[in-house]
Design goal:
- The structure is a homodimer.
- The first copy, chain A, contains eight helices and five strands.
- The two termini of chain A are about 30 Å apart.
- Chain A has helices at about 15, 30-40, 65-70, 75-80, 105-120, 135-140, 165-175, 180-185, and strands spanning about 55-60, 85-90, 125-130, 150-155, 185.
- Helices cover about 35% and strands about 15% of the residues of chain A.
- The first copy, chain A, has a single domain, classed as NADH Oxidase (3-Layer(aba) Sandwich), CATH 3.40.109.10.
- The first copy, chain A, is an alpha+beta fold and about 200 residues long.
- The first copy, chain A, is globular.
- Chain A has a four-stranded antiparallel β-sheet with strand order 1-2-4-3, with helices on both faces.
- The interface between A and B is large, with 75 and 75 residues.
Chain lengths: ~200, ~200
Amino acid sequence: MNKQAKTKYGIHSLLENRWSPRSFRDISIEKEKLQRIFEAASWSPSCFNEQPWRFIVGEKGNETYNKILEGLVEFNKKWAVNAPVLIVSLAKKYFSKNYKENFHFLYDTGQAVAHLTFQASYEGLYVHQMAGFNFETIKNNFDIPDEFYIVTVIAVGYIGSPDLLDDKLKESENSERVRKELSEIFFKEKFGLSWE
Amino acid sequence: MNKQAKTKYGIHSLLENRWSPRSFRDISIEKEKLQRIFEAASWSPSCFNEQPWRFIVGEKGNETYNKILEGLVEFNKKWAVNAPVLIVSLAKKYFSKNYKENFHFLYDTGQAVAHLTFQASYEGLYVHQMAGFNFETIKNNFDIPDEFYIVTVIAVGYIGSPDLLDDKLKESENSERVRKELSEIFFKEKFGLSWE
């Protein structure tokens, strides 16, 4: 299995080797590692330093974990049950200082999760983010206030063998990572004209 | 000036030393470095691998740069004019495959910008993201299609001395970085109960 990004110009090895597996080894994550990946998230930048992100952390075997797992759609439940840690990411819709709408709450929370992911990669861990969950189940299971949007569920753990998965997921696990060309996403002069 | 994050558990040095300056040195960025920071963004994860992010890149002296600068609010114009590179980030609102709304377009674009920032830090560059710009000016200056949301303007460059700034901005440049405690953002059992 080689999931290393096929880069044109070369990028930092932590970014090159990051990907989102569905197979995790059945071992827990050391508390010190969790502390560091969480602290990494906290030092992310945000609009007016609002830090709109919040996280609910479940560790395999505890009630929080089971309540997060319960909220996942069946497809995700099937493989995520093997991750030692499941995290719900939340984002506050309003600025705390004046209760005005914060248009950057999701963008900023995405950055915090990316920070968490860099640190996780550095610690030898892998991260898989999910959009497939039942909003109401998660909201009710954790008494989440209305001013918070439930953004993603994030599986974290040590990577396992693709052979632990069923055939369909195994195929996805072994497939090459693909991305758009830079010419399709970086422009100059006007929208659509390649910068490259 | 010491802007290093005051961490409790310790995080990767590229995250620890990242911050958002307003003073930039008057030197351009090597093309190879731009290529790598852009490629880093492109390898970010996204919902269904949609890669909703797009970027318009202006380099000091060219028309694109001037058209981005024109769109900034006065407060940002004042300092951002010293950055060698200004980038507009855009995010596609719909999935390309079926034109359904993509609820993760902003979250995913935030992650791509965090990837860009991580690589920039590795290259010795600094990044400052801005929400203060005129939406219509940017939209018109670059013929941006309606299906794209204009998210942020991003200044990138080599860091300059705080003395290049006026007194008020200089104070902000020298101030300590602060963040919420982990106990305020990482929970277990229910919303608000500290994980730590």
